[in-house]
Amino acid sequence: MTATRQDADTAQLMEQILYEVKRVVVGQDRFLERVMVALLAQGHLLVEGVPGLAKTLTVKTLANTMRGQFKRIQFTPDLVPADLVGTRMYNQKSGDFSTSLGPVFTNLLLADEINRAPAKVQSALLEVMQERQVTIAGETHKVPRPFVVMATQNPIETEGTYPLPEAQVDRFMMKVLVDYPTDEEEYVIVERVTGPAVEVSAVASTEQLAALQQECRRVYVDPSLVQYAVKLVSATRWPDRHGLKELVPFITFGASPRGTISLVEGARALAMLRGRTYALPEDMTDLVADVLRHRLVLSYEALSQGLSADAIVGKVMARIPAPAKPLEHEKLAA
Questions:
Q1: Which parts of the sequence belong to the Sigma-54 factor interaction domain (predicted)?
Q2: Which end of the chain is more exposed for a tag (fewer CB within 10 A), N or C?
């Protein structure tokens, strides 16, 4: 198959997936784009928004468009780690122990209201999100490929919630903020929900998704773009080295190297979604806030002045210019 034909087939498949999802979900184009980026880049997604904004519906509908396994875990305060990863069971008849695998053994895992469970339960996801495996009683079990975690959290109710540990938050490729729909979108939502139910067709298989993920890794990223990602992340750790001395009192900890990796992988996936085999600066700049907002630990001074992580990321981006667009001959040579 020629490269051009392969690109056309890829674009058509992603278009079919988006078409099926949008038959159910109204609006939320930006959120949906980020979900697709996470899928292609093999990253995990943290979604924050008030109840009723179709966060769960979007992920569930996307899972239905693929012939893969989808599981949903409702996080509650009484959950224990074994409820997620599984445990060893004793069989009285045979006198043997057998392993009962938990719901994390799936292709698309929806962790609903992840901040409702205590830290020990949230930490049960650490190994599976990074290594794509689970260790139960010293025995390692690989989860199916592809494997993506989509977690939701509610920002308005703080009673009975537990902040996510930093190590957990850092494993999420992006944190996406979902906002209310427009009046026009809400009108369509009401019509669609109160009308006949829409059946979503499965248009892709997990094998096709795995092939898309492999193809995504081949999207060309110019070294100047990688350098731009490194500078952005470095500026969140040592703002004074990048002429941002005024931000020093506001940042306790900056982003980790996972932030740099996520920027590059995200730019690749977004370029692929936009029908290109090479990444442009706008592919990266569009994702900077989503990739970095949850990785910054702000100081008390920043919080007392009402400064958000997004505002600080905005100041960093204003100071560090994006590189010029890759030249045509560079792109062809790549």
A1: 14-154
A2: N
In this structure, the answer to whether residues 127 and 239 fall within a common structural domain is no
Kindly write down the DSSP assignment for every residue of 175-223, as one continuous string.
EEE--PPPHHHHHHHHHHHHSPPPPPP--B-HHHHHHHHHHHTTSB--H
Give the CA count within 13 Å in the CB-facing half-sphere of 155: 11
Q: Per-residue pLDDT for 199 more than 60?
A: yes
How many domains, in total, are found in the chain? 2
Residues 180 and 226 in one domain: no
- Tell me if 194 is assigned to some domain: no
Looking at the chain, the whole-number percentage of residues with pLDDT higher than 70 is 93
Please check whether residues 158 and 261 belong to one and the same domain. Answer: no
pLDDT greater than 70 at residue 6: no
Range of the domain at 34: 3-189+204-211
Nearest residue to 109 (alpha-carbon basis) of 136, 154, 82, 74: 74
Instruction: Average the pLDDT over each of 51-55, 62-66, 153-157 and give the range with the smallest value.
Output: 153-157
CA–CA dist 311, 172 (Å, integer): 20
114 and 263 belong to one structural domain: no
* 34 against 327, higher pLDDT: 34
| 199 within a domain of the structure (yes/no) | no
φ/ψ (deg, to 5) at 42: 55, 40
Q: Put residue 151 in one of left, alpha, beta given phi > 0 → left and psi -120 to 50 → alpha.
A: beta
Q: How far apart are CA 100 and CA 109, in angstroms?
A: 18
> Which residue type, as a one-letter code, is found at position 292?
L
Alpha-carbon span 111 to 109, nearest angstrom: 6
The pTM is what? 0.85
Percent of the chain with pLDDT over 90: 12
